[in-house]
Amino acid sequence: MTSRAHITGSTTTSIRLRPLSGRIGVEVLDADLEVLLEDGAARREVHRAMLDHHVVVMRGLHPTPEQHIALASAFGDPIQPEEHLPKHPDHPIICRFDSAGGYKADKWHTDGTFRDVIPSAAVLCMRTSPGTGGDTMWTNCCAAYEDLSNGMKALLERRKALHEQGPDAKAVHPVVVAHPETGHPILFVNDIFTRGIMNLPPEEGQAILSFLLRHVTRPEFTYRHSWTEGDVVAWDNRSTQHYALFDFEGQRVVERVHLTGGPMEAHCTSADDGDGDGGRDAIA
Ligand SMILES: O=C(O)CCC(=O)C(=O)O
Ligand SMILES: [Fe+2]
After folding, report:
1. Among 2, 42, 89, 184, which residue carries the largest CB count within 10 Å?
2. Is 148 within the bounds of a domain?
3. At 49, is the secondary structure helix, strand, or coil?
4. Ligand 1, pocket residues at CB < 6 Å
5. Distance separating alpha carbons of residues 161 and 209, to the nearest angstrom
6. What total number of domains does the chain contain?
7. Residues 56 and 23 both lie in one domain
8. Ligand nearest to the CA of residue 256, numbered in listed order
């Protein structure tokens, strides 16, 4: 196996990273599929990079479906997609989203927030690029929370919101969750699935939700990836939202592997309500 180990400061690293914007995204420079599949240190570093930068870009990898799944496993345990989603014909753990089949994701969202447990991460590969257009954007929901005023943060503390995709796909989540691995607070409302903030007069709740949805997608928190076929992008699905631009002609096909998630608790800055549930039931 090729060794790309080099020294940064006092730490030996197997990959080189370059930030892609001020608040979100990092690129693995000269990304080498073999290293990313076989070098344990490199795999731990890309996982760490995802936690630190939320989005990891690996250009020109062209993984086979098997390699795509193996690469995704550096970020967690791959999970079977929901039944209704279109799958790779030979690898049902891979979702295949083909614009020719009417697929679009041109609204900001975090995947699966209509379930109690959402995927921890996603690894997406561009298979057929339209050439021009069809970029994907991600936004950093930790940065969005950080930049709220203290007054707004206090107002959101212990609030919950309803997320819904349909009658059998509903969940309630704290408006601000703590990242299960980093502990950082995440502003956790999204345009597609969040229906409303609970236990507020409806007009107040809607006004606050509209503000938050606008705020979370401010350009300062985003990275926009212009795809070349064979690019792979991994994202932390808890701390980000994404949006696929539907601005192209021709066909666009992407394939995605989701990684399993776990429970997420409310982020609380003030004292807990003492019943051990992280304040989840304490909506004023
Ligand atoms: O098509 C894309 O670029 C992203 C699609 C998407 O929403 C997803 O894979 O979860
Ligand atoms: Fe998505």
Report:
1. 42
2. yes
3. helix
4. 97, 105, 111, 122, 124, 136, 242, 244, 254, 256
5. 9
6. 2
7. yes
8. 1
Distance 71 CA to ligand 1 centre (A): 18
Give the closest residue (by CA) to ligand 1 atom 10: 111
Q: Tell me the CA–centroid distance for residue 102 and ligand 1, in Å.
A: 13
* Rounded-to-integer distance, Cα 38 and Cα 6, Å: 17
Q: How far is the CA of 24 from the centre of ligand 2 (A)?
A: 17
Selecting among 23, 43, 53, 111, the annotated active-site residue is 111
Same domain, yes or no: 200 and 94: no
Judgement on whether residues 30 and 50 belong to the same structural domain of the protein:
yes
Distance CA 177, CA 189 (A): 10
Catalytic member of 96, 109, 163, 225: 109
- Using CB atoms within 10 A of its CB, is residue 236 exposed (0-12), middle (13-18) or buried (19+)? buried
Q: Specify whether 78 is located in the same domain as 181.
A: no
Cα-to-centroid distance, 94 and ligand 1 (Å): 13
Can you read off the two tokens belonging to residue 76?
């967690």
| CA 124 to ligand 1: nearest atom | 9
From residue 39, alpha-carbon distances to 35, 45, 191, 233, 272 in Å are 5, 10, 38, 19, 42
CATH of the domain at 67: 3.60.130.10
pLDDT at 269 (0 to 100): 86
